[in-house]
Structure formats: C-alpha cells, structure tokens
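Weekly sync notes, structure subgroup
Attendees: PM, AL, DS (notes)

Item 1: joint prediction request from the bench team. They want all two components modeled as one assembly rather than separately. Inputs as received:
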Amino acid sequence: MSKTAQAVIEARDLTKVFRDFWRRPKVRAVAGISFEVRRGEVFGLLGPNGSGKSTTLKMILGLLYPTSGFLRVLGCSPRDVQAKAHLGYLPEESYLYPYLTPDETLDFYGRLFDLPARERRQRREQLLDMIGLRHARRRTVGEFSKGMARRLGLAQALINDPDLIVLDEPTAGLDPLGCRQVKDLILTLARRGKTVLLSSHLLADVENICDRIAILYNGRIQALGPIRSLLEDTGRCRVTFPELPAADLRRLLETVRSLLGAEPAVDHPRRDLERFFLDVVAQAQRGATESSGALPAHGVADYLATSTAPAGATLLQTLAAAGPPPAAPAPPAPDAAADEAARQADEKLRRFLNPEP
Amino acid sequence: MTTIIAIALIAVRNAVRSRVVVLLLGMLLLTIIGIPLTVKSDGTVGGYVEILVQYTLGGAELLLALATIWAGVAAISLEIQKKQIQLLVTKPVYRRQLWLGKWLGLLAINTLALAVCGGVTYGLLRWNTRPGRLSAPDRRTLNTEILVARQVISPEPFAVEAQARQILEERQAQGALPTNVPMAIVYKAIRDGLLLEAHAVPPGNQLTWTFAPPAAGWPEHAFQLRYKISSSWLAPSAIAGRWSVGRATGGHRYEVTQTNTTLGVFTLNVPATALAGAGPLIVEYANVHRQPVTVLFNPQNGLRLLLYAGPWEANLARALLLIALRLAFLAALSVTAGSLFSMPVAAFVALFSWFMINAGASLRALSEYGNAPILASGPAGPGAVLRFFYQAVQWLIQPLQTENALALVATGQYVAWSLVAQVLVVQVVLCGGLLLLVGAGALRRRELALPMN
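Output from the run, pasted for the record:
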C-alpha cells in the first residue's frame, strides 16, 4: 500500500481566505499548507491563537470551504455526507442542546448514524460509564459544568465508533482526571488503528500523546514531523541517578567537568504535577465522597477498546497500577527490600566513582 | 427518515422544555377565552359565533403565524449562530434532512396548538349555547343557519359584455372617450354600469336569477337565500318584495313576500320541496312595494344560495386543517429564510413576505388600476413600471391567497375539500418543495462555521 493510500487526510497547498460582505479578501487564515495524516496515528495541530489551526480543522470537517488547494478526508471530499459516517468531532466548546439530558443527547446523535435502538442503548450505557456521567443522566446539559459538558461532547464524538476522530482542544475545560482520561482514550483509540487529529495549545498534552505534529503560525506550517525527532536535542544528554552524598557529587562533577571542559548543570528532577494530583485525588476518592459533578470515569467503552487496551479496568485502577514515570521516580518505599535495593544502587555508583586500583 | 424524525423530535423537545410551547399555549388560551369576554357582539347568536370563531380563532391563527415565523427562522439561523449546527452537519446528515426535520418539528407543534385551540373553542361554543341558555328561535337559527356547513352558490352572471363592447365602440367612434385613461378601465366602467342597471328592480318589475345545479347535485335539505338590498331612497327604509323559488320545469314553486330594510343581510328559508323538478333553479324577485322605489341588488354579492353540505364540526376541522397547511407553508418560508440569512435579516424577510401575501387584495387593486393618473402615464412612464411591479408581485403571491376559512365557518359556509386540497398541493407540496430546494441548496453552499455567523 502506498504512502498516499494510507493517508486519512491529505492536504496540499490548502488556503483559506475569509472575505467581507462585498467578497473582498479580508484575512488569509490558512496560507498554502500541505500535510497528511496517516491511518492509526495521532496527529497534533499546534499553534498560538489565530494561527489557523481551527480553520484547518473546520475545512477538514466540511464546515468551511477551502479557497484553493487540495483536501481529501477518508478518500472523499470533506463535503461528502456519507464519509461523515466514519468521522467523530469534538468541537472546542459545548455545542450540545442545553435542554436534553445526556441519555437523550447520545440517543439523538446515535440516531443520526442510523444505529439500531439496541446498539444505541448499549453504546449509551458504556459511554456514560466511560465519561463518569451515569449519575447525571437525567439532568439537562444546561445544568452541567463546562467539564461535564465537555465529557458528554467527547462521548457524542465516539457514538459511531469513528475511524477518524477530530478533537479541537480536547482537554480544554477538563480537570486533570478528565485530561488524563482523554489522553488515555486517545492512545487506546490509536492502538485500535483509529486516526486522531487534534488541535491544542496545551503542549504537555500533545507531547504525551501525539505521534506527529504540525506547528502553525500565521496560517503557515513552521514545523512538521514526528514529535520525538522534533524534540530530541542531540547536542546534550541527561543522566539521572539517586541523591548522592555531597562529597560524592563533588567528585562526580569534577570528573564530568574534566571530561567536558565545561560546567555541567545540576538540579533535582521534579515530580510530574499531573501524576501527583492524580495520586492525591485517587487517595481522596477511596473515601467515596458524594459529588454532584463528574464521577470517576470507568476506563474506555467496551466497543471502543481492544485486547491491548485496559478494557474493563477503571481509570483509577489503571492509574494506581501504573507506576511513576521513569523520568520522575517516586521516593523509595519505606520497606526493607526497597532500602536494600537503594543501598546496593548507591554502592554500585560509589564503586563506579571510586574504582579500586 | 430516521434522521428527519430524530431532528423533528429534538426540535419539539427543545420547544417544550424551553417553555416556548407552554407560553404559546397559554397565550392562545388567553386569546380564545379573553376575546369573547372583552369584545361585545351584536347580541345575536350569529354575532357570538362570529366573534368566537372568526375573531378569537383568527387571533389565535395570527399568534401562531407570528410564533411560526419566529421559531422557523430561529430553527436554523439560531443553530448556526449558537454553532449547534456544527455537530449536526459533521454527522451523515444531508442538508435537506436537516431542513425537513426542522420543518416537521414546527408542523408538529402547530398541529398540537391548533388542535388545542379548536377543542377549546368548540367546548366554549357548546357550553355557551347549551340548552336553556338560548331562546327557541335562537337555537333554531344556531342549528339551521350557523352550526351547519352550507355551500355558497352564486347565480349565473348576467351577460352584459357584448353590450358593453358595443357601447365602447360607439363612443370611440363618436370621439367621446377620455384620451388619458386606458381602454380597459373605460370598458370596465361601462360594464359595471350595465351590471348595476341589470340588478336594479324598478317599481312593479321583477328580476330573475338562474342557479346551475352544483357538482354533487341538489341535496334533500331545506336551503336558504342570502341577500342584501339597497334602494333609490337615500334614507334607510323597509321595502316589500315577493320571492318565487323553484326548478325550471315541474316541481313546486315556493313563494313568499318579505319586507326588508336596506340595512343588513337577510336570509330566506326555502323548503326542500322547491328543489323538486328538473333543470336549474330559478329565483325571481318582484318589487311589490306600494311607494315607487327602485330596489338595487349588489351585482357581486347581492344574492347567494346556501345549500346544506354537512355537519359544522367537520367544517371546523377542515378549516383548522386549512390553517395548519397555511402555517406549514409559513414554516417552510421561515426555515428557508433562516437557511439563507442570519436571524434578524431572516426574520425581516419572512415577516415582509407574509405581509405581502396578506396584502393580496390591495396589491390586486393596485395591479389592476393603481393610481390611475400615474399608471396611465404611457407605456414607458413610471406608472408602467409600477404596474409591472404590482402585477409581478401579484402573480407571485396569487397562488398563496386563500379564502378566510374561519370567516366561512363562522357564517356556516362550507369549507370545501377541494379548497383544502388546493392549499395542500399549491402551498405545501409545490411552494414548500421549492422552498426546500432553495433552503437546502443555501445550506449546502453556506459555510456554517464562518466567524461572522
């Protein structure tokens, strides 16, 4: 299969010029950008406000029409109605009907995909579990907080189990728990071969989940490629090890200084705030306090998950099971085995720094 | 179809939960119950029914029309403004399905509101005319003349065209015609004069009208002649006249002398026996007044024949159906306006179109005569342009003009199924279909996420 055949979105020299009432050009929001999004990848469109990322997304969704250039989505024109059966869209704000309940909202959007009643009911249940709004299923969307509406917006985007999911600022308005869940969900969907296109200016979110990114500025692509290669700084390296006694550290630095001929930077790695927050909340929620907002979400809807995904496991279980990230080791556990391991590691390091003649 | 119904149901649910429907029903009930309490009738049972049916239900129709325009325009333009449409059109939904869903939703709300209005009006009418509340003559009038559906038949027109043409030619030959007035207007003036002359009954003379049998044949019920007269005397006066009614050949002729004033509309009850025999129905009026006075009948509506055509309840239902169909057209017009323009512009366009349609009679007059001195300013003058404009607008809106169904029901006149079918085909199927094409086409062309939406 050729590279082009794998492309779910193809954009070449895509341009969008907004015009005024008299059709005079007013703003060139997108200026001849070219990129493609391949099947199964998570692609991020980044850029400051007004850089053209939302305009690009809306052209892909057929909500705006390109002024010039070539654009294909799922092999069809973005205006092709049938192709939309394989598309899911989460807009940047809640555009849901405020007088409907989550049940009715999901049922309505399910009907638009002509899903049978039984299927709609099953998916509705699973999605409500997934977004943690089962307890609020009888309340109208107008009563929801921004985060709750956002979760429901995400659920409606997934009701048809889409092949291409377009997410505009997917974590905007969500609490850290919701952000984490959305990111997990995106990764799960990508593992299932789904294609995810997202726009965001929360760079940390993008960094964690995107395979490739395009950075837009002033309607033009300023950088495009795999996130790993774009971010890798091949001119520097980092070595992480446990805390050392001051004397050992001094000797280590002298050795490094003599090797480099320059002063190395030394600091303490910080814990990831998101991870810290999630741990604190998970601990608090074990007390099962009642909440009127979104409850702990439950993994990923069965129909969206695969064997590789943590299907059935709750988000909190997943988070609890997942140890601290490699870049931010947690403090040593206060048990004997852990103490022993730490002592051995220190010993190895000391031997490395003070080789016996 | 699932998609269309889903969109329609959501439109209804939104309207109900946003309390729009409750508010609308409240206002409608207030209109129906309040107007008869505040408006004084002429004291007759006919006057009461006219107020209850024509004015209160008419007021409810007006309210519903305004609500339909507002809701129809908002159905799409407000969704574009609030960006809710972005979630709809990124699903496999054709623009025509979106248009039809919104339109069907409005149709459902209007049907519900009209059914409630019709039910309450009927209940009020029956309650206020219950046995013991009306005198025996009033009850008889109510049951035989008002709460029935009667077909209205006009007499065969008097043939004066040939004579009018002859007079026009003679005066042209004599050079006795004004040069700055179009010939069509002169001809019409001569013809109208002849018609008035033909409908005048000098002392001791009589006037004869012929009524052709209706398509469904003559029914076996008593029938009525409805007439109004004026006279050569300036002051209102009572004038005696002798009526003779019967078929052209055979049968029994019904004859009666009536004394009527030159004010008001009168009804003459004629027994069914007058319909025995064959051929057209012949009605004669003889001026038998003692003093020398000429009786004048209006050539347009001086005499009408009222034939029983069915129960009143069915007539009311047909009238409500007719209103529902007219509202369906209005909903189509508003939804299309909302598809084309933003909310305030669309509301203005829909309201203006509705006003033009309802100003039909005035437009018709303008397109026929207009301001004669201006319109007669020659083929290239401003009058010609104005006349062309009025005629074009008149041509456009003519198919949308229908009789006031409530006025018919209030006076016991038959609302024909053919009228209902005509409105269904012309206003809903043809015009509605055209509006669907325009609306769906506009939505296809329109970018639904423009910053200025």
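Discussion: Residues 29 and 219 of chain A are 5 Å apart (CA to CA).
Action: AL to compare against the crosslinking data before next sync.
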